[in-house]
Amino acid sequence: MLPPRRALRPAATYRYPEHLREQIAAAPKAPGVYLFHGDDDSLPLYIGKSVDIRARLLAHLRSAEEARLLRQTRRIEHIRTGGEIGALLLESRLIKERQPLYNKRLRRQRTLCSIRLADGRPEIVEALAPGPGQTLYGLFASRRAAGERLLAIADRQQLCHTLLGLERPRPGRACFRAQIGKCRGACIGRESREEHAARLLGALAEQAIAAWPYPGPVALHERSGEFEDYHVVDRWHFLGTCASLAEARRAPAWQPRPFDADSYQILLRPILGGGAAIVPLFRADSPHTP
């Protein structure tokens, strides 16, 4: 992301460099992604997105830091999309692929971890789109971060570290936390294992990765003027964007991409909240279950 913006002094004004003005004027007032290129054209300086590319480019003159970025820019490239969802998905993918200098938040494809319950006991696993009948909790940057979340839940809920796999069991003896009043005693029968598991599940529930709500792949349809996009998604795996419904119907046969947490976060609201036109790509007799 860009450096933090500082408040402008009343007398401070910034103007677009002369060599960029024609490029700004040619930018569309439409959704899409834009790239600032410097002297080394192989590596973008910055990649951004907007529902109005031209207006967003003009807004880059709000601080000294952004004005400095523009002085380093030699060329502005823009790519139209059919709407805001497409702009968000394309921005996320291009930042990971092109590694622009000033974007930090989305620069690297992260291998994230989640928490899974097996017989009531938590396991830390690689974050994946949950399969049928499976529930995963949280998207964590590392196994350590997932473990720290479990520790925080244990403190808040007075859970047993032994049953959570965080402390080696000592047969017939209470765990250390039970001895100091920070565990309700599931390790020595003061609380049932079922009650302990239910409290753990309740604490994790708000972080559950959403179940895929369809029996197969769908396309999210967006249109802006003459630009039309079909974003194909199957079990939260974003497969790609197509220019026509006929092409979208072939997309589920493409090689699936790895589960990407950023794409999941982008798609979550439009798919579950009804904020997008959704076209089913599965057969009515599909054997899959949501």
From TrEMBL:
GO terms for cellular component: excinuclease repair complex. InterPro entries: GIY-YIG_endonuc (IPR000305), GIY-YIG_endonuc_sf (IPR035901), GIY-YIG_UvrC_Cho (IPR047296), UvrABC_protein_C (IPR050066). GO terms for biological process: nucleotide-excision repair; SOS response. Residues 29-104 form the GIY-YIG domain. This is Excinuclease cho. Keywords: DNA damage, DNA excision, DNA repair, Excision nuclease, Hydrolase, SOS response. GO terms for molecular function: hydrolase activity; nuclease activity. The lineage of its organism: Bacteria, Pseudomonadati, Pseudomonadota, Gammaproteobacteria, Pseudomonadales.
